[in-house]
Amino acid sequence: MEAINQFYNIVIEMLEKIATEQRENIERAATLVADAIESGNVFHVVGSGGHSNMTAIEMCHRAGNLIPCNSILDPGFSCEHGATRWCEKIPGYAPNVLRYYRVKPGDVLIQFNAYGINTATIDMVEECKHLGVTVVAVTSPSLSRSIPKDFAGRHPSKQNLCDLADIVIDDYCIFGEGVVEIDGYDYKVSPTSTISNVFIMDSINAKACEILATRGIAPPVWISGNIPGGTEINQAGMDKYFGKLRHL
């Protein structure tokens, strides 16, 4: 099958699978987010390695998404600061990131990492458990469990994110990540994890907004600054959450 059609069909099937099989856990995560906002708190979103970081960017000052989201955009997890810095492999790095972003007991953290095995990922979820932070993991359990225990890229404990988090949402990332077959080439191309991660995060956002509305609370969302009234609404949100969100 032609490459674009292959990718389209695979992505549509994946999103349908998430919307049906992962709906309950997405709704559970959204309820936690809504509860945090109703109580006057923020929630945290992090991609604990490389490209998973793009989901945290999606939630940062993004029109249509919730304002009280503390996006953790640490340079060590960001490809634009050097994809081969390997901060995700440094023991003890992740707990310092959590401290810098003021993640505290009782908070909710949504953690994205498809493989769910690297040092920063496991250090982060373990630190959250120590602090009493509820962790929603968006990851691929089947992928995590397919990686050999003796693989050098694993956390020294050999644990998986999916086995440590409080709620797990499967993003259905597959081994090797590429999904499109090209004639005459040995490897599959074009990954799906960024699409699935953003779909899951924006679904959590949508459901949390719906839950807040049913409770009589206007969802505090960013409005496009390119439409009338957007700048004024956004400024009020920034004034309210200044000091609670690192990237305002």
Written account of the structure:
There is one protein chain. By secondary structure, the protein is of the alpha/beta class. It has a single domain (3-241), classed as Glucose-6-phosphate isomerase like protein, domain 1 (Rossmann fold), CATH 3.40.50. The chain is built from eight helices and seven strands. The protein has helices at 3-21, 23-38, 53-58, 93-100, 119-131, 141-146, 193-214, 230-241; strands at 43-47, 69-72, 108-112, 134-139, 167-170, 178-180, 189-191. The strands form two sheets. The chain has a five-stranded parallel beta sheet with strand order 2-1-3-4-5, sandwiched between helices. A two-stranded antiparallel ribbon has the order 6-7. Strand 4 (134-139), helix 6 and strand 5 form a beta-alpha-beta unit. The longest helix is centred in the C-terminal third of the chain and has 22 residues, at 193-214. The chain starts with a helix and ends in a 7-residue tail after the last helix. The relative contact order is 0.19. The mean pLDDT is 94.
Briefly characterize the structure.
This protein has 248 residues and is α/β, with parallel strands linked by helices. It has 8 helices and 7 strands. Helix 6 (141-146) links the parallel strand 4 (134-139) and strand 5.
